[in-house]
Amino acid sequence: MRMPEPDTDVIAGRVRIAKDLSAIVSGDGVIADEDELRVYESDGLTAYQQIPLIVVLPANTAQVSGVLRYCHENGIKVVPRGAGTSLSGGALPLADGIILGLGKFNRVLEVDFDNRCAVVQPGVTNLAITGAVSHRGFYYAPDPSSQIACTIGGNVAENAGGVHCLKYGLTTNNVLGVEMVLINGEVVRLGGKQLDSGGYDLLGVLTGSEGLLGVITEVTVRILRAPATARALLIGFQSASAAGQCVADVIGAGIIPGGMEMMDKPAIHAAENFVHAGYPLDVEALLIVELDGPEAEVTHLIESVEDIARKVGAVHLRVSQSEEERQTFWAGRKAAFGAMGRISPDYLCMDGTIPRHRMPEVLNGIAEMSERFGLRCANVFHAGDGNLHPLILYDANTPGELEKAEEFGGDILRLCVKVGGVLTGEHGVGVEKRDLMGEMFSEDDMKQQQRLKCAFDADGLLNPGKVYPTLHRCAELGRMHVHHGQLKFPDIPRF
Amino acid sequence: MSESFRPNTLEQVAEAVTWAVAGKHSLQIAASGTKSTLGRDVEIANQLNLGAFRNISLYEPEELVISAGAATPLHKIEQALAKSNQQLAFEPAHLGRLLGAPTKRFGSDGGTLGGVIACNLAGPRRIRSGAARDHLLGFHAVSGRSEPFKSGGRVIKNVTGFDLSKLITGSFGTLAVMTEVSVRVLPTPEETRTVLVLGCRDEDGVRALTQALQSPYEVSGAAHLPSDVVVLSKISPIATAGGAVTAIRIEGPAPSVEVRCEAIRRLLAPFGAVEELSKKHSLAFWSEVRDVGFFVRDRERQIWKMSVPPTVGTAVAAALLSGTDGQCFYDWGGGLIWISLPSAPDARHELVRDAVAKSGGYATLIRAEPEVRARVPVFQPQPAPLAALTRRVKDGFDPARVLNPGRMYEGV
Ligand SMILES: Cc1cc2nc3c(=O)[nH]c(=O)nc-3n(C[C@H](O)[C@H](O)[C@H](O)COP(=O)(O)OP(=O)(O)OC[C@H]3O[C@@H](n4cnc5c(N)ncnc54)[C@H](O)[C@@H]3O)c2cc1C
Question: How far apart are CA A113 and CA A115, in angstroms?
């Protein structure tokens, strides 16, 4: 992985920069000690490490603004960081850049039940938002598996999803407003408590921008009344294509389940051995379908899904009879990543999305690759929306295995794109998929995206080296290449 | 001399834009023209009509996706989806009649799919299913640099690169010319019913809506019509209600709708007499709310649309209506206010902006005479840093200001 060439002048000025920053954030807000810096050397993609130049932990928006203005004036790169759970290396530090940590922004500022929203600081964890509103039966819908740890700021920056996003949407569909600070220190508010805000939807592009456009210092999210009930079905099939057919038929019947997850045989076995969820071990594919809503609706839909499952040849079918049993069904799926840690020293989690009906052929393709690379792979799948998480097992201590695993991962994502899908459904491009962007986008497509970046951060100081394989200078991107005044197609139809 | 291009291919669209850039001509981007009066009134000499991009290229019901040319008529999309019991869940408003557009030509007042996206429209289901912005999965377009580009894809879950689909939605054709779009579709609910609470004052009506929206009964429409708007309804059980109507829509599988309607009726009984609308009347009524049908007739009146935090809606509306014989009604649980006011040369915009500044929110002048829309800001004026950022975004896509220049803001 090649990162932009570090600026040696900036590195040489480290002590002075730390001193300058201390004047802005005061006290314990600046970390420059090497041992303490090491804590920040990687995020959830632990294959890559880099000690940052300095870590800065501002305590309020004015300090964020001061830090960014200083960095802007002095040409210092900035990597924003929430909890550091990114699986794509989005928060990977730079040798010549500061980490701007938002850990001190950890307060829920306001809960407004009548307007059904909450205003929180970006360092509040995803689960803590639900925690702040659950006493009145509300919750914050997007539920990434990392929700105990990851922050809402990181969720907005990655447009995080979760098992319930087929029905309730991704982060982008559940955020109403933000306060953000631009690299020049300007503070901008986008959206608010209202649903529509007009003007260019900069809130929409900020969401999922992986720290490249600005630093989020406050977030207003929608909160929803929790469904009255939820029940789940555990359905086993003899083939992945039968499971896929079941998913298609459920949706075809007009049912959008709260969650619809699939696991393949290696994932089922690993999860079962880990948490003993009672998964059948003699099936090739397992679906967890969760229906939520009013009792009457859930009862009605469970029956419909049962019928569909039997028609497409389910060989195992259980309906949760209690809340405890429903939780048990999920326990295995939720522990799937952890279970990999038990059967393999290391794993890479991929994140492509495909049109669902191409799933059987993609799974076959992955099985073939697994053989070719000599690496095991287990698949968990947000089946409802086609978001596939192949978990590639490898051992970083075996020379060359990481590279092999990465190559394997790259081939999987190429296949996803080839069948009409995309490189990443929820984890972001980061550094991990940066060099694959060309598989999906042409040079012109990427240039147009980078022109948006230029509007926010013309000097490319915010999180450089992430998302885009080539960093074009904004001056070059801004140039227009129009040479003639004559129509090339003088025959464009007129009316 | 002015040009009217009607390109057939992406290359021809790019060529027309090249012509505009080279000769410093501006282009009005149009399809059916139903919403051509939505926005500031600016003089644009040349037209780029997307009318030829009107085919559905892909529709896979089980994948919940449809792709079509940007100028595909909305009604054509809706008909295709209906065959598989699906719909655009964001319920885009058909604004043609409200805006007084000559709709005969296109056979419907819904305009085109691209137009719906360019204006980021949504209907009553906005509270549950979002707006156009939440459903555009990807698009192909030509920028104001005359470069074709694409963004997003055809799958629901995608975070690859910046989400330009959000940016293009609601950009009123000022950033790029969309030629093809992919949107997410969802199943049409089996049953639809509406619980009506009769005779509430505005504040109580919105409180009733708030309670309904805080309940676990999955409300998908929440509107309040004061008595002077009720009488403008074309739906007989509404028009003859004899007082204000507070309406709560419940959708879903039949057994579920049954139970939830019952629960909502019990919940809201303290607010007044409660009734229920049948499926047929429900569908017609929510279309009327969606399309602002009540305000279609009085053409002379100016119309504002305000999106505010729901709990401040009634106060905002009262401030604007006081001393006028204007009218208003509420959708989105009180968070969307449609206001119809007697025509004024300044469209009372300072009053409107003041009210919004105090409450938080966003106001758009939806209908007014061209000379008023030329003078008065149609969209909410932006604070300086945001206005500057907006101009820089425009620079990135259309530095020569050839695409719908000035339609949203001066100089953009
Ligand atoms: C076990 C595990 C399970 C996971 N499951 C899921 C899942 O189900 N769904 C899912 O979507 N993701 C999942 N993730 C990925 C990760 O948790 C999410 O991407 C999450 O949103 C990252 O939040 P964070 O606070 O840790 O951000 P970080 O990792 O610190 O940062 C992520 C990115 O956001 C930027 N950023 C952070 N805060 C800000 C801010 N305030 N302003 C601007 N930019 C900022 C950073 O620069 C970086 O680019 C999982 C991760 C792990 C380790």
Answer: 5
